[in-house]
Design brief:
5 helices
Length: 110
Amino acid sequence: MASLTRCAQAKQRIVAVAKAIVEDKQDLLEGCRQIVTFRAGLSAEASSDPDLLVFVGVESELDDLPGAAERAYWESKALSEADRQRDEYLSAAAEELVRACHALIGKWSD
């Protein structure tokens, strides 16, 4: 019973982030990172959902780029290059990420 509750809570958190992404209230990369973090609370079956794995793939591709907390510690030239890479990748992935958000919202909303 406790694991079901944990899984349900993780799904609610993922849905909240997905809604924020769709409403353009959440940065795409930070949203992917949050969703991947919340994935740890899911059942084995739910954690391998193909729509969820879209976020895992994006986060994996960009895991070497700084998050909001790390940005202050990066040199400005390196940060500019990281931002360019991030923007280029996310621009190409945005449509698929939004589609995956809609799919997860549809599956896991109450």
